[in-house]
Design brief:
This protein is of the alpha+beta class and 228 residues long. It contains eleven helices and eight strands. A hairpin with a 4-residue loop joins β6 and β7.
């Protein structure tokens, strides 16, 4: 879909994700050990080309939107059947070797058995998490300007200033400054900050960190810089 967005000149691409897809994504992210951002499920909209530096689509300011994200899959299917409208079902959706399909076939029905509103309730929880996440992101953006200095290939964080923030904002500061870090790497940096001695730390995806004169300096590998 992202390639299509870059190929055709348009502002918006609508995707067909439903509330059921959102619940499945939340469960997948839960078992992966995701934080609040992952547990907030599928975003209602996002810019396209965000992972592709300087693409035409990114410059155009287009976005993906999900107008069906608050509607359950069964409701959509009922609507289509009532009007005699056929739809195409991806054959891979029935293959249980894919974790999402296993959740869809085995886990979600159990949750629906516990509560008929399971899918809707999960969607509401996702919305609340997303709203709170947006608020915390605003705080983290201001905090990042206070503690972090960014330059090509390098990020420097003032340890003393960084320690003034609670762990919730610390994690988001790190993710803003170094979005390539996964949750395990972020926790490793937090532990690294609390050490009384210096040293070096090798993180995920070619990022290295070391302490120097009250600062933690992060360096990205050449490969990351080249891929931008």
């Amino acid at each position: 879909m992202e390639r299509a967005a870059q190929k055709f000149e348009c502002d918006v691409i609508a995707l067909g994700h439903t509330a059921n897809d959102n619940l499945e994504t939340m469960l997948l992210n839960l078992v992966r050990g995701a934080g609040p951002r992952g547990l907030s499920g599928i975003p209602v909209q996002r810019p396209w080309g965000v992972n592709h530096k300087d693409t035409k689509a990114q410059r155009a300011g287009g976005r993906f939107v999900r107008p069906l994200i608050d509607i359950e899959r069964g409701q959509i299917e009922h609507h289509l059947r009532a009007r005699g409208i056929e739809w195409v079902e991806d054959e891979s959706n029935a293959d249980p070797k894919y974790r999402r399909n296993l959740l869809r076939r085995e886990v979600v029905p159990v949750l629906a058995g516990l509560s008929e509103a399971a899918v809707a309730n999960a969607r509401r929880a996702a919305q609340l998490l997303a709203e709170e996440g947006q608020f915390l992101d605003g705080l983290a953006e201001a905090a990042a300007r206070d503690v972090a200095t960014l330059s090509p290939g390098r990020v420097r964080i003032d340890i003393l200033k960084f320690k003034n923030y609670n762990n919730i904002l610390k994690r988001r500061i790190l993710k803003r400054a170094l979005p390539e870090l996964d949750s395990q790497a972020v926790e490793g940096v937090l532990e690294f900050c609390n050490r009384d001695t210096g040293g070096r730390l090798t993180l995920t995806r070619g990022v290295r960190a070391h302490r120097h004169r009250g600062m933690i300096e992060f360096e990205r590998s050449k490969e990351i810089l080249d891929n931008g």
